[in-house]
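can u do me a favor
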């Protein structure tokens, strides 16, 4: 895996395979594109406008707070208190 950042374009690219044979790019949203190889496997992810994305620390902090608060799980799920 290789991660690169283009500061001019403010784009992050995560390359999952070393030598992709690019066939198709899927636009998942205005800011996320997925590159597929000839077998239609994902080999890369491009994230545009990275500066507008939420910071990972904020995301994981929120998850940790939910877990500490005893995040409610539907009855019958593993780890539920019900």
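np, heres the sequence
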């Amino acid at each position: 895996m290789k991660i690169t950042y283009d500061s001019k374009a403010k784009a992050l690219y995560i390359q999952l395979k070393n030598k992709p044979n690019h066939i198709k790019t899927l636009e998942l949203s205005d800011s996320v594109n997925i590159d597929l190889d000839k077998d239609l496997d994902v080999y890369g992810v491009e994230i545009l406008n990275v500066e507008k994305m939420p910071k990972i620390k904020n995301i994981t902090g929120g998850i940790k707070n939910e877990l500490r608060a005893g995040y409610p799980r539907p009855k019958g799920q593993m780890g539920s208190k019900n």
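The mean pLDDT is 76. hope that helps!!
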